[in-house]
Amino acid sequence: MSHFVLKSKNVIIGDEMIPASIEVKGELIVAIHPFDYVPDYAVVDCQVHDYDDLVIMPGLVDSHVHINEPGRTEWEGFNTATQAAAAGGITALVDMPLNCIPVTTTKAAFEEKLAAVVDKLWVDCGFWGGVIPQNIADLDELLTAGVLGVKSFLIDSGIEEFPPVKANDMRAAMPILAKHDVPYLIHAELDCGHFDDVKITHKYQSFLSSRPKQWENNAISLMVDMARESKAKGDNCKVHIVHLSSDEALDTIADAKAEGLRFTAETCPHYLTISSEQIPDGKTLFKCCPPIREQKNREHLWQAIHDGRIDFIVSDHSPCTPELKHIDTGDLEKAWGGISALQFGISLIWTEAKERGFNLVDIARLMSTETAKFAGLDAVKGQIKSGNHADFLVFDPHAQFTITNEMIKHRHNITPYAGRSVLGQVQKTFVRGQLVYQQDEFINAPIGRPLLKGKY
Ligand SMILES: [Zn+2]
Prior knowledge:
The protein has 456 residues and is an alpha/beta fold. The protein has eleven helices and 19 strands. It has helices at residues 78-87, 107-116, 139-144, 167-180, 204-210, 213-232, 250-258, 269-273, 295-307, 345-355, 360-374; strands at residues 3-13, 16-25, 28-33, 47-50, 55-58, 60-65, 90-95, 124-127, 129-130, 150-153, 184-187, 239-241, 263-267, 312-313, 392-402, 421-431, 434-438, 441-442, 450-451. Strands 1, 2, 3, 4, 5, 15, 16, 17 and 18 form a nine-stranded mixed beta sheet that branches. Strand 7, helix 2 and strand 8 (124-127) form a beta-alpha-beta unit. The radius of gyration is 21 Å and the shape is globular. The structure holds zinc ion.
């Protein structure tokens, strides 16, 4: 069994960054020692790795990633996505139930997905299931099979076999989710019908106008009603808003939390680091749903991160082939929606967060501790502490670099961030005590594991 110590003057432990030594045996952290700890070499064969003032952080946990395998592996697959994750300091991610084929809405489909990941994972990987109007009867079995929670859409998902749910479908699903104590993830846009006359052209503003804040606001209000109803029935199902973009819904979320509902929300690097005013017309790489909104909206989201109305930050990495992105024609209507940037999340966020007074302890909380807790992985992940998985990233918070397409590890080397200069670079990534990535190289073999509910 491997036995070693990682030390640095800057280790993030709990809500502090302190000098410390972390003792690792096999896959686990077994002790946290003072910085100047020296192993008793007469007793143990234990190497010490001193990272000086580089920061040792808990491995990031990204609970919103679309990997699309099996079925649409030409969009993105487990091997490439988990390499990109490792390069971005992410040691565990949770895969979405679409856009793979079949969609993960039955136990059989989930088993196909588990068969597809064998020998491909460079980091650990959990899975969300899906709720659609047709699968309520299969839900208990799907949850028992080990998905960490389920997702629904309130609007067309773009995938025919993953249709949206209505209130009555959710009413049927929520007691089952509550029984398994897992979260209900909601793509919260509700097409209110008032904007069908907006014609989407190559102009970004036309796309933005076609998906107004009101769609999100109304959907989130509906979900607060659903959560309230569930609480009144004694189920108190956890409701979670994925990829929040509208600042107008922030107070609704705050009220739901204050009322004692189990109501959480996430946002993503693209909503926090890009403003609609900066997006050139015809640049389909910036298309996602809900859309990236104006600068003022962006600053309101940062305020909500600061005061806790937004709980955490996830990538919503959602790639497709360059052809489906219609890059050449710039057709914002036809282009598939989704941002690809899995490996750059921490650098993008650190660059902007630092300017707004956040520190790396905040980043660890927002991108590791809280996401691990949300996905039910906090018994083993999300913090550097004795007994947890030995998942770390070694981060240089002062290194600057420019994002290029050539450095991309996900399947298609395109991202809206190409050419952007960022602060902070991942130097090394450890998954359960094994070094999997350093300086642009992947080490050894894909040792990541599927994470099924309750089995870590
Ligand atoms: Zn998504």
